[in-house]
Amino acid sequence: SSELTQDPAVSVALGHTVRITCQGDSLRRYYVNWYQQKPGQAPVVVFYGENNRPSGIPDRFSGSSSGNTASLTITGAQAEDEADYYCSSRDSSTNHPYVFGTGTKVTVL
Amino acid sequence: EVQLLESGGGLVQPGGSLRLSCAASGFTFVNYGMTWVRQAPGKGLELVSSISDSGKSVYYVDSVKGRFTISRDTSKNTLYLQMNSLRAEDTAVYYCAKEGNCTPTVCYWDVFDVWGPGTMVTVSS
């Protein structure tokens, strides 16, 4: 299957902005979705498609994409945003429907 | 409220079997594809198996082909994963997820918009 590569970890000062990136060939063709996972909990989608934020997700979460790279930006990070973040998209290789990124651990300092 | 709830996990010896269930509520089950995603301890997310809304199309990651079987029962609004010949490397939390998000006017199919809390499968002697 195709791969989606993310930085293993990033840190951000409370109230500052952090960008999480996701790289992969499938992103040239398909939209990316972003999932937040806190310890011991299931993933939750925080941004998906071209420009969609589920109800209940704060507007400090935004997404963008260009070429083979997609980004999730948290503007004004809060303590509760500390979590693992995974990108995902359709897989551009044959018969693999979806692929997940390697995950980024976000630490809010 | 849209909900998914997995059950059936537990401790099993290598070579053993388990059947996971995922009870769905709050949405029209027959209209959505469903997926099982697993997460080994301290690791990332891995898509294990998917089934289309009709049940006619299924997918398995290579590592479980021939050992796992996904199915769905629309009369019970339940998704299943039959896991045979279990190996230590199958140890993980198994999540079921609903594929697609629809509003009254548009559907976006490529997102897992609802997840269950997960069920732990431990394969060990």
Describe this structure in words.
The complex is a heterodimer of chains A (about 110) and B (about 120). In chain A, about 0% of the residues lie in helices and about 45% in strands. Chain A is built from no helices and 10 strands. In chain A, strands 2, 4, 5, 8, 9 and 10 form a 6-stranded mixed β-sheet that branches. Chain A has a 4-stranded antiparallel β-sheet with strand order 1-3-7-6, with no helix packed on it. Chain A starts with a strand and ends with a strand. Chain B is elongated and about 50 Å long. With about 120 residues, chain B is mainly β. Classes of the chains: A mainly beta (about 110), B mainly beta (about 120). The interface of A and B includes residues 37, 42, 88, 99 and 100 of A.
Nutshell version of this structure?
Chain A has 109 residues and is mainly beta. Chain A is built from no helices and 10 strands.
Q: How do the SSEs of chain B run, as a string of H and E?
A: EEEEEEEEEEE
Which geometry of chain B do the CA atoms define?
Answer: elongated
Coarse structural class of chain B:
mainly beta
**End-to-end Cα distance of chain A:** 36 Å
- The helix/strand class of chain A is mainly beta
Regions of chain A with pLDDT < 50 over 5+ consecutive residues?
none
SSE string of chain A, helices as H and strands as E: EEEEEEEEEE
Q: Quick one: how many beta strands of chain A?
A: 10
The proportion of strand residues of chain A reads over 45%
Enumerate how many helices of chain B there are, as a single number.
Answer: 0
Distance between the termini of chain B: 40 Å
For the sheet with most strands of chain B, the description reads:
7 strands, mixed
Main sheet properties of chain A: 6 strands, mixed
Chain-averaged pLDDT of chain B: 96
Mean pLDDT of chain A: 94
Q: What would you call the quaternary organization?
A: heterodimer
* Secondary structure tally, helices of chain A: 0
Kindly state the percentage of residues in helix of chain A.
Answer: under 10%
Largest interface: A-B, 27 and 19 residues
